[in-house]
Amino acid sequence: ERSGFITFMSNVDPKFSTISRRTLTRTILPDLYTKMLHGFKSFCSMATFISLTLDLWTDRRQRVFFALTGMNNINEGYY
After folding, report:
1. Confidence of residue 76 (pLDDT cuts 50, 70, 90)
2. Which residues are registered as beta bridge partners of 38?
3. Is 9 exposed, middle or buried (0-12, 13-18, 19+ CB in 10 A)?
4. What confidence tens digit (pLDDT) does each residue in 9-51 have?
5. Whether the Cβ atoms of residue 55 and residue 71 lie closer than 8 Å to each other
6. Is residue 19 within 8 Å of residue 28, measured between CB atoms?
7. Could you tell me the keywords of this UniProt record (predicted)?
8. So what's the pLDDT on residue 77?
9. Fewer CB atoms inside 10 Å of the end CB: C or N, the chain?
10. CA–CA separation, 37 vs 30, rounded Å?
11. Would you say the pTM of this structure is higher than 0.70?
12. What local confidence, expressed as pLDDT, does residue 19 receive?
């Protein structure tokens, strides 16, 4: 990271330490993906029904964005 960002973050939080891009792409993101996938599978397996909403849009620079929202009833006695 650039020195200005590192200086800023050390003033905000003296315990802050940067991680390398290599560590981020080879370790942290794959672990996060695995956790999210297991959570999603658990969510789907417990659902009696799932309602999905998909939203697609582009910005002025023609970059594409999408959002997927899933909803499930929390439990049978929630109503």
Report:
1. low
2. none
3. middle
4. 889 999 988 888 899 999 999 999 999 999 888 878 877 778 8
5. no
6. yes
7. Metal-binding, Nucleus, Zinc, Zinc-finger
8. 57
9. C
10. 10
11. no
12. 86
Q: Match 């330490």 to its residue by tokens.
A: 17
How many residues would you count in the chain? 79
CA distance 50 to 40: 12
Are the C-beta atoms of residues 71 and 49 closer than 8 Å to each other? Answer: no
Q: Is the pLDDT of residue 78 over 60?
A: no
Domain extent listing, the chain: 3-72
Residue 41, classified by CB atoms within 10 Å of its CB into exposed (0-12), middle (13-18) or buried (19+), is exposed
How far apart, in whole angstroms, are the C-alpha atoms of residue 72 and residue 42? Answer: 12
Distance (Å) of CA 70 to CA 1, 39, 52, 67, 78: 36, 13, 5, 10, 18
